[in-house]
Design a protein that fits this description.
This protein is an alpha+beta fold. It has helices at residues 82-93, 98-109, 112-115, 119-133, 138-152, 176-185, 229-242, 257-266, 276-286, 294-305, 310-324, 330-337, 339-342, 359-371, 378-404, 416-422, 427-443, 490-494, 499-507, 544-562, 566-594; strands at residues 3-8, 40-45, 52-58, 157-162, 168-174, 188-191, 203-210, 216-224, 250-253, 271-274, 445-451, 457-464, 470-477, 484-486. The strands form three sheets. It has a seven-stranded mixed beta sheet, sandwiched between helices. Strands 11-12-13-14 form a four-stranded antiparallel beta sheet, with helices on one face. Strands 1-2-3 form a three-stranded antiparallel beta sheet, with no helix packed on it. β11 (445-451) and β12 (457-464) form a beta hairpin. The radius of gyration is 34 Å and the shape is extended. Mean pLDDT is 79; it is low at 11-26, 533-543, 598-630 and 632-642.
Length: 642
């Protein structure tokens, strides 16, 4: 058997001798690499491929041959190795531009001629990898990834919302680690939807919390197509469903009316706070007097965060209106109506960790801006946010290591109170506590002391600033159990004792911080024993759903902590087997009792209580919105306050 073959000395894409032509729109056409060269070789080979016979050979070319330095321009000489492909994929995956990744490879090998492929090949490779992620369709590929994550993580939850044509319009996800983080640090949440850089113009809506190192942590995320009341309600309801119905104490958002209505409907027990940064940024354009009158501007900022009481806020606000003759300013009138959402003077009893801005969420958006492009797919958006979450968790792990294997340098080494607190709090939280202690010791003085009827002592403290403005605070102190309460309500809002109480503690030589003033969320072991302090006798466990959720979180957290230690794994497995055997014995005994095999008097049924009361679904009891609060459509299709 004879096999006939044919070969060309000139590949149709190897030689490019024609020059580019420019059309009427000044755009380059594709280069034609075919020159009509007749150089070729014909051959015959036997079946075994051992004997070859050249039947025709044309050696002459009608074009110059490529030199040694130009061979990298020939398609037949270009290829991307596995190592180079892996490097390109990893570098572009973390947000590095393709051209920068290619230039890095060129510098590594000492020139373009040595890298083995062109910049166009690099772009084509990256584009092929992006298309491979969504080979079965963008939304379907995302659904497959979420389903795969759920199979790997039993506590991973997600939900997808589609329209009447079964097109994806919103999706939400939360993994097991985020659920545990929310149980530990979910009292204060930042929710922001300002980031929209993706292929479908979906709004990125991450739920951001703050951990015991005062770092950002991810406790859930969503992408929504439209910022409507229905969309936000779906996101918030899905979030609550996946975290066991636990509502945050405070949630910070930007000044969006649709978001306000949605929060009032879903988070009925949560205090909604507005971002002061958005308000202060808008103020100069809405109130021109702020641009040239420093006094008016100072009074406005005092109203935002420096007033100690509602009365002080009212006085400062009235003074600002009077000085600037701003009684007719509509924007200030509207802002005054929602003063409880943005002024700290009206939020002294709710924990907010001292957060005044949603810039923690916006910082996440800035990071995402480096990972996404206007053409990013849903899969790329999800994977990018997942990488950001992993980097945050790595930072938290590193800080946990520093707290466990290091000690804090005390500024007051002789203070017993600081020594004991430094072993309880994390490094960052201790620095905040120590700063409050120093501010109280240096800047606050006790001017009056009087005894109350219930054995408590009332201290009057005051502080004078540079302008000789004097402020007073009142601290009620019990000398036996060290119980203290301050008029500034710093502990109630920040979770760490204020400088006024610490000034009294220093005055009374208190060396032991009462247990009630040490919040678990600020301690080194904030996450270690998060599920151990509950017992089955608590009212919370009357619900099977709550019990299952609690046990899943407990075992998930325990598994993550022992998975790297063989001895610990074996001990946990042995203990779980013992628990399973004992549980089977209890269940068998309980079944015999139910079937009447044992006398009734041998079983103590306890007190039978009424079923738990459930809040009826229906119309909200919140007040109706006035005319100024009603949404107004803008060109950006985002509803905001005027």
């Amino acid at each position: 058997m004879i096999i006939k073959g044919r070969g060309y000395c000139c590949s149709k894409s190897g030689v490019k001798v024609s020059k580019p032509t420019i059309d009427d729109q000044k755009r380059y056409r594709k280069l034609d690499a075919r020159t009509g060269c007749l150089a070729c070789i014909y051959f015959n080979a036997d079946k075994e491929g051992k004997n070859w016979e050249v039947t025709k050979f044309v050696e002459e070319h009608n074009h110059p041959l490529a030199s040694e330095n130009d061979k990298h321009l020939l398609r037949s000489q270009r290829s991307i190795s596995n190592a180079q492909a892996s490097l390109l994929k990893n570098m572009t995956g973390v947000g590095i531009r393709t051209t920068d990744a290619y230039n890095f490879l060129v510098d590594e090998v000492g020139g373009v001629e040595n890298v083995g492929f062109s910049k166009t090949d690099a772009y084509n490779f990256v584009q092929r990898e992006r298309k491979a992620l969504i080979d079965s369709g963008d939304a379907m590929s995302l659904s497959n990834i979420l389903r795969e994550r759920q199979s790997e993580d039993n506590m991973f939850s997600y939900d997808i919302q589609t329209d009447e044509m079964n097109r994806l319009i919103s999706f939400f996800w939360i993994d097991g680690r985020s659920k545990i983080d929310y149980d530990c640090f979910g009292a204060v949440i930042i929710f922001d939807t300002t980031y929209r850089l993706n292929k479908y113009n979906l709004a990125c809506a991450p739920f951001i919390a703050v951990n015991h190192h005062m770092q950002n942590i991810f406790v859930g995320g969503a992408f929504i197509a439209t910022e409507t009341i229905e969309s936000f309600c779906w996101v918030f309801e899905t979030f609550l469903r996946f975290v066991g119905g636990k509502q945050p104490i405070t949630i910070f958002t930007d000044q969006d009316q649709t978001m306000t209505v949605s929060i009032e409907r879903v988070f009925s027990n949560t205090r909604h706070r507005l971002c002061q940064w958005h308000i202060s940024k808008k103020a100069p354009s809405k109130v021109p007097a702020f641009n040239h009158d420093r006094c008016i501007r100072s009074l406005f900022y005092n109203c935002m965060s420096k007033c100690e009481s509602e009365v002080e806020f009212e006085n400062s606000w009235s003074d600002m209106i009077r000085r600037g003759n701003l009684g007719e300013n509509r924007w200030l009138q509207d802002l005054f109506k929602v003063r409880m959402k943005w002024s700290t003077a009206f939020n002294k009893e709710r924990l907010d960790l001292g957060i005044l801005l949603t810039q923690r969420s916006e910082s996440a958006n800035n990071v995402l801006h480096g990972c996404f492009k206007a053409t990013s797919s849903l899969v790329e958006c999800y994977l990018g946010l997942d990488k950001l979450t992993s980097s945050w968790r790595r930072s938290e792990h590193d800080e946990d290591f520093r707290c466990k294997h290091g000690s804090v340098t005390l500024k007051y080494s002789d203070c017993l109170l600081l020594k004991k607190v430094s072993k309880i709090y994390t490094r960052k939280c201790y620095s905040l506590f120590e700063q409050s202690f120093m501010d109280g010791a240096v800047g606050v003085c006790i001017v009056e002391e009087s005894r109350l009827t219930d054995e408590r002592i009332l201290y009057v403290l005051q502080h004078s600033d540079i302008a000789n403005n004097v402020k007073q605070w009142f601290v009620s102190f019990h000398p036996t159990n060290y119980d203290a309460d301050c008029s500034c309500r710093g502990f109630q809002t920040r979770g760490i004792l204020c400088k006024h109480i610490l000034r009294v503690y220093n005055h009374k030589n208190v060396t032991q911080l009462p247990e009630k003033y040490i919040l678990r969320r600020f301690t080194v072991s904030a996450k270690k024993d998060v599920y151990r302090f509950k017992t089955a006798s608590q009212d919370d466990f009357d619900s099977n759903l709550v019990f299952r959720s609690h046990m899943m979180r407990f075992t998930y957290d325990l598994t993550r902590r022992v998975e790297d230690c063989k001895i610990a794994r074996e001990y946990v497995l042995s203990a779980m087997n013992d628990i399973a055997k004992k549980s089977d014995e209890i269940l068998e005994h309980d079944e015999k009792v139910k079937n009447g095999l044992f006398p009734d008097n041998q079983t103590d049924k306890g007190n039978v209580r009424d079923p738990p009361a459930m809040r009826r679904k229906g119309r909200s009891n919140n007040r109706r919105k006035s005319h100024w609060e009603k949404p107004t459509q803008r060109n950006s299709k985002k509803l905001v306050f005027k």
